[in-house]
Design a protein that fits this description.
Mean pLDDT: 94
Number of domains: 1
Structural class: alpha/beta
Number of strands: 8
Number of helices: 10
Largest sheet: 8 strands, parallel
CATH class: Alpha Beta
CATH topology: TIM Barrel
Order of helices and strands: EHEHHEHEHHEHEEHEHH
Helix content: 25-40%
Strand content: 5-15%
CATH superfamily: Metal-dependent hydrolases
Radius of gyration: 17 Å
Length: about 250
């Protein structure tokens, strides 16, 4: 089984993107051998009120009625009543994770708003995804974000909030074992595998039980992530942890 922990649905405002809807995305992922996915709303990044994007996602998930996708909430802790939005996403719509996008929502990744969101998610026992970036800013339209968080903010967030499971996604810099707190996990799609061996060294340093398969679909191609997963020389048990087992545990699938 392969579970993709890093996908999205909705409109990307700066270029056309195929497979934006859940039915399209499911057909795309299934054709490539992926058996399920965590999905966030791209619209929740760009709408004035992210909860409108979360509501759209909840409606689309209910229409699917197949258990293939699991929701990931987009929350902006600068807004009034964001705590109620998070509660509704988790308690009413059964979303399994939260995605922080401070570069788009305009708060400091290590400021009080970020800490409040991390604390609230930890109290509800839902993991927090912290993307280093959403797309490659080197080819970004000038109105898009032109920087990224890299990996250190996610490590610091995990250190400040040991009760919260933090998942670093779409980052290229791996951690070594001495610097990675136990509640920090890493999504693997952007970490080089055969070229410089970063991914095998990361797995050795933090353990196969702290690495998750993700693709970034539909904003990124899925095949490179699948190739990395296929080329990993691991025991069957460790391979299964990365492919799906860790996601099943973290997201309570």
């Amino acid at each position: 089984m392969i579970f993709d922990c890093y996908t999205a649905t909705g409109h990307w405002p700066f270029r056309p993107v195929e497979n934006q809807t859940l039915p399209e995305l499911r057909r795309h992922l299934t054709a490539l051998g992926i058996d399920g996915a965590l999905v966030a709303s791209t619209n929740a990044v760009f709408y004035i009120d992210p909860q409108s994007g979360n509501e759209e996602l909840a409606t689309a998930l209910a229409a699917e009625k197949n258990g293939y996708f699991y929701g990931c909430a987009g929350i902006n802790p600068l807004l009034p009543r964001w705590e109620e939005d998070l509660r509704r996403c988790v308690s009413e719509w059964n979303f399994r994770a939260v995605r922080m996008t401070p570069l788009y929502h305009g708060y400091d990744h290590d400021g009080p708003e970020a800490d409040a969101l991390l604390e609230a998610a930890g109290a509800m026992d839902v993991p927090v995804l912290i993307p280093s970036r959403l797309t490659d800013f080197r080819g970004a339209q000038r109105l898009d974000v032109m920087t990224e968080l890299w990996s250190e903010p996610a490590r610091q967030a995990a250190l400040r909030h040991p009760q919260t499971k933090v998942i670093l996604v779409d980052a290229s810099l791996p951690y070594d074992g001495e610097k990675a707190p136990d509640n920090l996990y890493v999504e693997m799609s952007r970490i080089a595998c055969s070229y410089n061996g970063h991914l095998p060294r990361l797995i050795e340093a933090i353990g196969a039980d702290h690495v998750l398969f993700g693709s970034g679909a539909p904003l990124r191609e899925v095949e490179p992530a699948l190739l990395k997963l296929g080329f990993l020389e691991l025991s069957e048990a460790d391979w299964q942890l990365i492919a799906a087992g860790n996601a099943q545990r973290l997201f309570k699938l």
